[in-house]
Amino acid sequence: MTRRPRVDVVLVNPGGRKHAYQGLGKDLAAIENPVWPGLIATFIRRCGYSVEVLDANLMGWGPGEVAERIEDLNPLITAVVVYGHNPSASTQVMPSAGAICSAIKSETPEQKLLLLGGHVAALPERTLREEDVDFVCTGEGCYTLADLVQAYRESASPELGRVRGICFMDGSGITRTRPAPLVQDLNGEMPGIAWDLVPVDQYRAHNWHAFETIGERSPYASIYTTLGCPHRCSFCCIQAPFKSGEQALGMPAKVNSYRKWSPALVLSEIRKLVEHYGVRHIKFADELFVMHRKHVDGICDGIIERGYDLNIWAYARVDSIKEGMLPKLRQAGVRWLALGIEAASERVRDDVNKGFRPERLIKLIEEIRAAGIHVIGNYIFGLPEDDLASMQQTLDLAIELNCEMANFYCAMAYPGSALYQQALTSGARLPASWGGYSQFSRDALPLDTKHIRGEEVLRFRDQAFTRYFSAAPYLEMVGSKFGSETRAHIESMTARRLERDHLVPAGTI
């Protein structure tokens, strides 16, 4: 006898922190609320369907535990969502997502399973062949999931060709349906995150985000004020989920899918977080928050008017911060701005469509600090034109700038990025498993550059991290700005070492 479904949709956030971050995931990395499952839950509710969110990442549930909860909830559709807290995080959680799907199918073979997210949209047919699922989503996911629920509500054996934006197996092989559109009316169709479906008080900020209050990192929340990105850096995979949606809307593939929530809607979300959940630490997860001045001013003016005491961090570009913006950002509670500096060498930057004037960068960092805002410098080692000399140039720049926080990444050919397509075309080495695309995993394997191997890039990155955070000028600056407790925290962080499978013999830089 078939059981009656108790809920239409269960959205699973798969996690995999232990593999992706090794020991760093226990107490240093942020634990972010599942933004995309929260947004999709709101969309599904507004379509008239019931929904639950299972955050396996937060709860530390293994595949078997998730499968047991799915069996108990008995949903019409289970969707495992592999959007990460940034575009690159989608691929690195695929091992966890795949294991969860296999466990669910083992426990309840009749359960209809959908995989969706950035990685899935980049490689839909491969994902369908490799993972134990019924359907994969070729686009953003909202309309696809709603179509799928409606189809199975109407019939136990529906006409799947009517469901937009899926791939599935049939008797003749893989069938791919027409693309689903993107959600265009964000305010009306997806007005924020379904906060009541997640335990807001249990999420925590990055350690650096709370340098001023190092022992108080919760509660914390991550929200979007915009979706998509108007830029197309070759190392980024953010456009992958939106490409099919662009085609469905009749737009050429080169058009970006950048959309905005209204400042009023964003302020409504912030009000809920502050007044109902006591949240102070907030991340604006937009790929680029500081861009459209009217949008930024509207949000900042509203926060200032309400008098909230917030600790916000957001992304900006060297060329996106306009005159007069910084004082207002700081007054609104933006205490950290992350800048994508990437590389010091103009030759390396130009090759990946990332340009800025070095003199403007130095002046901008001075202006940001003068406004009372801290800087996160983001750097990438191992871009295609990098060699040891150019990577050293980047590290030297980072040490000279001495930002309050620095993120050192290795270039990875993430599925959905131009680098991935180039790697396939050239036959370049890629990680043996999806987990190897994580920056901090044991099996991480960066892309070979035109001049050096990925193992050399990885060693350089890890040694650069230690050198930067152990430097006396940096530690003195941290102690002066944030206090001795935060300095001791940094010293403890630097003492940890990541285990790596792919390294060249130890050396110094």
Q: Using DSSP, what is the number of strands?
A: 15
Largest pleated sheet: 7 strands, mixed
* CATH class call of the domain at 7-175: Alpha Beta
Low-confidence segments, given as residue ranges, are 245-252
Shape: globular
At CATH level 3, the topology of the domain at 7-175 is: Rossmann fold
- Strand content is 15-25%
Q: Roughly how many Å apart are the termini?
A: 67 Å
Question: Count of DSSP helices?
Answer: 22
Structural class call reads alpha/beta
- Output mean pLDDT: 89
Q: How much helix is in the residues?
A: 40-55%
What's the structural blueprint in terms of helices and strands?
Layout lengths: L6 E7 L3 H5 L2 H4 L7 H12 L4 E5 H4 L3 H11 L1 E7 L7 H4 L1 H14 L4 E5 L1 H5 L1 H7 L4 E3 L4 H13 L11 E5 L2 E4 L9 H4 L30 E4 L2 E2 L15 H6 L10 E2 L2 H15 L3 E4 L8 H14 L4 E6 L8 H7 L2 E9 L3 H6 L6 H13 L3 E8 L6 H14 L3 E6 L7 H9 L27 H17 L1 H11 L1 H11 L15
Parallel strand pairs: 1-2, 1-3, 3-4, 4-5, 8-11, 11-12, 12-13, 13-14, 14-15
Antiparallel strand pairs: 5-6, 6-7, 9-10
Helix pairs in contact: 5-7, 13-14, 14-15, 18-20, 21-22
